[in-house]
Specification:
alpha+beta; 8-stranded mixed beta sheet; 39% helix; globular
């Protein structure tokens, strides 16, 4: 087979890139190693920056998001049972959209089907070859090996995919921070604890009250890295969550059976550069953020924003400028989001080695947010998304 772009990874980054390029008349093939049902069953992020909302709309996949998504004008930060509202609309005139990554992926698959886009699922043994200058990709489907010749490869295949590993170690610089705790997450068919997300700092650890829609809620509590899901019954989870969130939210919290429960470790990770010859990295293939700042999916969208425009400029105008600057441009925004996610994580979690001094600094940093409009404005600017 032949395509101008071979996209490795059928998650939201790869599907969005293929959607944008297809609409611009650029041929592309998406390879995904899992089945479509597996991809659509993954539970992921639920908060979209407004720039991501607009990018999805430009790609022609915004109608259901606009109809079913929940715009939020702010979030609540809670500490010492005091809630501080970060009013995005008042501070910077912007919003975020609560709309799950699973729903975004559904919309993208539907759009790809409607346009006749080529998405090959259950592609095993995907191997990037001929790099850096004459790329092609091989894979196995139903026991038969196939080859795709292409001008460029877009690696949208996540942290564990083959794309980043195709870059020689001598050329790739990685930066990583492993956090000494994880998030125990529960999905339940219950109404949300509040109209907006609640981020809670507590002596027992962090907690987050989130949502997917008015009848589906997502909750998290900070747990030690060595904890296992089967250590936590639903009853134990709900009791611990109530201890950590503000009293008024705890008193009205509607509990119910969990329909999904998992523990996610937290890490910050960046790989540089995001380009090697005719290979480009996007999304989790190049960077991972702790979920505290709601940046993972949004960074994937911003990478696709930069990469799609660079490829369109190349094919329409013969310009190499945006392609040559892709890594530098994308990483500038990535590192700012990494910084914000690190700051939010440090602000709200309990660390095993924290001294009394550290705890006081943490408490008064949150108090300063309550007292300073400038501090709240900085948080709102970053949370709702820095401009592309």
């Amino acid at each position: 087979m032949r395509a101008q772009i071979c996209i490795i990874g059928g998650g939201p980054a790869g599907l969005l890139l293929s959607q944008i390029l297809h609409r611009a008349g650029i041929s592309c093939i998406v390879l995904e190693r899992h089945s479509r049902d597996y991809v659509l069953a993954r539970i992921r992020a639920g908060v979209l920056e407004w720039g991501s909302v607009e990018e999805l709309e430009r790609a022609g996949v915004g109608s259901r998001m606009r109809a079913e998504g929940i715009p939020h004008d702010g979030v609540l930060l809670a500490a010492r049972n005091r809630a501080i509202r970060i009013d995005f609309k008042d501070l910077i005139g912007r919003q975020v959209m609560v709309y799950g990554q699973t729903e975004v992926t559904h919309d993208l698959y539907d759009a790809r089907d409607a346009m006749g886009g080529t998405v090959i699922t259950e592609a095993e043994g995907v191997t990037l070859q001929g790099l850096p200058d004459t790329p092609y990709v091989t894979y196995v489907k139903d026991g038969t090996e196939h080859r795709i010749d292409c001008d460029y490869i877009a690696g949208c295949d996540g942290f564990h995919g083959p794309s980043r590993k195709a870059i020689p170690e001598a050329l790739l610089k990685t930066y990583e921070k492993i956090y000494p705790f994880g998030w125990l997450g529960v999905l339940s068919e219950t109404p949300p604890a509040a109209e907006e997300l609640i981020y809670a700092s507590h002596d027992r650890g962090f907690a987050l009250c989130s949502m997917r829609n008015p009848h589906l809620s997502r909750y998290y509590i900070q747990v030690p890295l060595d904890h296992k899901v089967d250590q936590w019954s639903d009853e134990a989870f709900w009791a611990e969550l109530k201890r950590r969130i503000p009293h008024d939210a705890a008193e009205t919290l509607v509990t119910g059976p969990s329909i999904e429960k998992s523990i996610a470790p937290l890490r910050s990770f960046v790989a540089e550069p995001m380009r090697w010859g005719r290979l480009f990295l996007a999304g989790d293939a190049a960077h991972i953020v702790p979920p505290t700042g709601a940046k993972g999916l949004n960074l994937a969208v911003s990478d696709v924003h930069y990469l799609s425009r660079a490829l369109i400029a190349h094919y329409r105008d013969g310009s190499e400028e945006l392609l040559d600057r892709y890594s530098e441009t994308a990483l500038a925004r990535v590192w700012k989001a990494i910084r914000f996610s690190w700051w939010m994580t440090t602000l709200l979690h309990r660390f095993p080695d924290q001294s009394d001094f550290d705890l006081h600094i943490q408490a008064y940093e949150i108090e300063y947010l309550g007292d300073s409009r400038a501090a709240r404005t900085a948080l709102a600017e970053n949370y709702t998304g820095l401009p592309f």
